[in-house]
């Protein structure tokens, strides 16, 4: 897909462990919450939190949006760790810092339906995805909902930069290969996968 750059093994095992340590601190300050679908209130199977000045949230009343505070604690999101800002500088080719890092936790049975990321004002900036833990079977289509899709596996340490045409491509997570990674150790009982997406939300 044009504008999409897949960087397998971008984070080595040591960098993955450093990122897990940073995430433990983030989750201690900003616990995972369960977002809900607009109008229906149906819960997502993916648990979420954020770091950085803005975070993505969703609930029945307010729908999908970015806001500066955690929806349950009302506290500001914790800062983005330097290693994430560094990954953005290395991979994004975008001359302004990211504003939001959405942290998605997939338990082994979690999925994410086919969707586009379109809650941001600035589609000129790419979305940077970093995967940790269990492998995800990911689905990628084109910029319309109909049309062919293909299946791609994302493993712990992989990075994907979604820029150009791929920035508005349909994508989702079909399934998590439970037990495919031991990265999280005794953190996150039940294991699973964490995906981080770094985003620019506002136009600079
Ligand atoms: C688009 N997250 O939070 S990472 C999301 O794995 C989200 O948690 C997924 O979709 C996750 O909105 C996907 C971003 C990603 C990765 C590869 C892609 C988006 C992509 C390839 C093509 C198009
Ligand atoms: Fe997405």
Automatic annotation (TrEMBL):
Residues 97-202 form the Fe2OG dioxygenase domain. Keywords: Dioxygenase, Iron, Metal-binding, Oxidoreductase. GO terms for biological process: oxidative RNA demethylation. Its cofactor is Fe(2+). 2-oxoglutarate binds at residues 104-106, 193-199. Binds 1 Fe(2+) ion per subunit. One of its GO terms (cellular component) is cytoplasm. Fe cation binds at residues 115, 117, 171. PROSITE patterns: FE2OG_OXY (PS51471). One of its GO terms (molecular function) is broad specificity oxidative DNA demethylase activity. SUPFAM superfamilies: Clavaminate synthase-like. It comes from the Bacteria. Pfam families: 2OG-FeII_Oxy_2 (PF13532). Substrate binds at residues 56, 64-66, 119, 145. PANTHER family: ALKYLATED DNA REPAIR PROTEIN ALKB-RELATED, NUCLEIC ACID DIOXYGENASE ALKBH1. This is Alpha-ketoglutarate-dependent dioxygenase AlkB. It comes from Microbaculum marinisediminis.
């Amino acid at each position: 897909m044009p504008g999409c750059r897949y960087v397998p093994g971008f984070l080595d095992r040591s960098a993955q462990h450093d990122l897990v340590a940073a995430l433990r601190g983030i989750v201690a300050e900003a616990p995972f919450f369960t977002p809900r679908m607009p109008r229906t209130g149906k819960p997502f199977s993916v648990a979420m939190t954020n770091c950085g000045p803005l975070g993505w949230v969703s609930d029945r009343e307010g729908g999908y949006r970015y806001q500066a505070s955690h929806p349950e604690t009302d506290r500001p999101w914790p800062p983005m760790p330097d290693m994430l800002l560094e990954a953005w500088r290395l991979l994004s080719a975008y001359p302004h810092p990211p504003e939001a890092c959405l942290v998605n936790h997939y338990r082994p049975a979690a999925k994410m339906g086919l969707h586009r990321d379109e809650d941001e004002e600035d589609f000129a900036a790419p979305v940077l995805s970093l995967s940790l833990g269990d492998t995800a079977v990911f689905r990628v289509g084109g910029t319309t909902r109909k049309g062919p899709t293909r299946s791609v596996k994302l493993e712990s340490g992989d990075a994907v930069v979604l820029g150009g045409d791929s920035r508005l491509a349909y994508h989702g997570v079909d399934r998590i290969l439970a037990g495919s990674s031991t990265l999280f150790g005794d953190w996150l009982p039940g294991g699973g996968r964490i995906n981080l997406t770094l985003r620019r939300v506002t136009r600079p």
